[in-house]
Amino acid sequence: MAKGAAGRRLLAPGALHLDRRIGRTLAVYLVIITVIVGYNARAIADQRGSALSVNVAARQRALAERYEKDVILTTLGIQADPGEDAQQLLANADALLHGGEVLAVQGADQEIQIRPASHDPLVVAKLTEENRLIQELITAGDDLYAMRAGQPGYPEQLRNLRIVGAQVTSISNDAVGQMTRETEAALARLVAVVITLGVLGAIAALAMAWFLRRTAAQRAAQFRSLVHNASDLITVLGETGEIRYQSPSAEQLVGVRSEELIGTSYLALLDENDGSRLRSILADLANSTDPSASARAEYRLRHEDGSWRSVESIVSNQVTDPTVKGLVLNTRDVTDRKLLQEELAHQAFHDSLTGLSNRAVFRDRVDHALARATRTGSRSAVFLLDLDGFKTVNDSLGHDAGDQLLIAAAQRLQFQGRSSDTVARIGGDEFGILLEDDADETSARAMADRLLAAFSVPFEVRGRELFVRATVGIALSVAGESNTDEMIRNADTAMYAAKAAGKARYEFFRPFMHARALERFEVQADLEVALIRHEFVVHYQPIVDFETEKALGVEALVRWNHPTRGLLGPLEFIHIAEDTGVIVPLGLWVLGEACRQTVAWRREYPEASDLRVSVNLSTRQLLEPDLVPRVRQILEASELEPAALTLELTEGSLMQKIEETVTKLRALKELGVRLAIDDFGTGSSSLGYLQRFPIDILKIDKSFVDGIAALDSEDPALVRAIVEMAKTLRLETVAEGIEETEQLAELRSAGCRTGQGYLFARPLHPDAMGAFLSKVAEEPLAMTRSEAPSP
Amino acid sequence: MDQDRRHRICLCLAIGVFGLLMPAACSAPAQPKGEVVDITLRDFHIDTGTPSVTSGDVVFQVHNDAPATHEFVVVRTDLPADGLPLGPDGLSVNEDWLDGVGELNEVSAGTVGTLPLHLAPGRYVFFCNLDGHYLGGMHGVLEVSADG
User: Fold this and answer.
1) Domain extents for chain B?
2) Is the pTM higher than 0.90?
3) Which of A157, A342, A581, B50 has its CA 20 to 30 A from that of A266?
4) Residue B62: is its pLDDT beyond 90?
């Protein structure tokens, strides 16, 4: 209870102030009362003067009676002195009316000064009448005084004297009574005034006290309400750090009711470090001579549930304030702000998707590792890891699936390194791993093996199993010679080399890779302008009917007539054209050129009037939204009948965005164009798509044809199975890469009817192709190796 | 709620103060019925403006214009007004020997006393019986005639 009362006292600092105001008001009122009582005391003293006058007035009756008696005694011959009485009666009457000296006591010599008996008109009228009657009495007395009893007229004169005497007595009594009443009434008025003033003053004082008390109570209630409802924590500590007051918001912050905290040590809510720091701050403040001194402190408070809250306190010393008498802590919960700061700091250095370090941190770590390596002579290794086929996942399953894959890949990578190794997401599907201290080719190779092994297990994304492999490039530092940019660039170069070598593998950086990378860079730069400079040419390889031994059609194959490097085959630039997007305009150009050329041949050689042309369509082209209208435009421009055009697609390109691809292929079919699957049998796709896609032709990959004539090969059976399946699905088959007559014989035997290869002709320049067509027209192919000039 | 209570408290205080400051309002007495006889008292004689009235209800309106306080005594008598019997001191009328009808014991100076009487036909004398006042000349006669 005592604690509660102390708390309330602390919460109403204005109450004491108001108590003082009430005290001051009452003191002022007492002064006023004293003045009023003093004033009335004077009035009472005045009334005492009035009482003296009353006494003198009362004496007049006795004087008049004595005068009357003395006159009568004198007439009876007895010695008396009515003259003195008469003189005193007249003097007294005048003094009562106008003020003057009278005998203090009847019969004595001492005289006193009296003021006019009253200013009241009625009293003055009575005294005036009394004065008149006294004069009349003295006249009557004088008249009788000259006579002696028994003389004629004596009885009448005596009667007159007695009548006037009785009248004087009557008026004298009357005047005295009136004066007495007036004095009593004046006193009563004074008393009434004093009582009224006292009562009114008391009421006013009580009303003021009540009002001030109520105002103080309201202010205290307001203050209490503010404190109780404030989210900030207000704490009053005693000299020894014990909690003397705690606002209710403590329950929210530390999970303990404020009442339970009273008397406990505040520092017990802090951890050891914060506690000793705050103790020092509190001690400094308590010893400070500056009464306005305050300090700020940041620390953590332990919640009852074991969690920690970050807070910020402003501490002020109010020990000298009699309403507080303690150190006051105004504490604010800054946990959210702290978390936000930490989150922002984390975001600045971490990849938001995977939570790994970002490129900036990775570079920084490599910087430090290289600096340390320079000092200690140790080596570091930088790994750059790229997911193979990530783009396919992103394009076919959507970006969300791609993100999930990245997160899963990041988790796997994190498990492969030591805690001292840095794993970072460099960007896109590229990760960086830094092996610090004592890295050599052996340890780096072990690490690379672990990394690749981590990708041997399929990922589960959106309920589907995805086989995604990784390609790794590794750069080892050379003590004192490597810098960060160089290390990362070398790892990148090694990674591209690994990709070029077939992906799902790792390569260490070797200096020669630089030259290759440079070459690749040059190709990329030259490709941009090659199309404009008309450096591309289309060569054609005939597709021959095994029965008629005539060329049914040709396959258009692009070549780059490089100004410095000579004629380049597609292997040297097509993948770069794919990566840079040049493949799209290049593919369209090849298509247009092939159609135009085919129409020209059809017109020039009557035997080739139904010549067909096959053109490769890249993955990138297939994904272009305006592919179908473009093909239509080209067909219309070249006037080639659509059925004469075959577009060749790889199995891989068909697996991108399958729904969209099916729609596009159907649209192409509606144009009349025929569709072929190139390099059939090399892709990883199932046979199910053969029914799903509107395919006309299967082109049997050269790898099957190569082994078809071998004695112990399974390829003949495979080729037969492919041809049988194609027949079932009503698809044509075209064998690729036929180089030997045995192969041709096997293919014929397997039921394959068309094919292409060096056995018939290499890819030919358009002019050579024209010659080839002309020659075949004259004499059919002898089914021997072509003697046509090679490109 | 608090404001109503405050108003009520203020009203009570105001009424209390008013009650303390103001004397209780006197309700005016009902004016008695009857023929009015105006009497004016002076030192020492009585003026009367109505020498006679008819019998029945009579109201004496006694104005004291004198400085002194006086009495007003009414007796029914056939004696002369200045011939009423005196008491042993010889200074006032011996009322025991007279047929008193009514009186006002004290009419203060400057005030008006009212004396309602039911008077039968006859002769009435009125006077101030303070010592020396009757003998000083404060008396008068009222003749009351029969009704009609």
Assistant:
1) 29-145
2) no
3) A342
4) yes
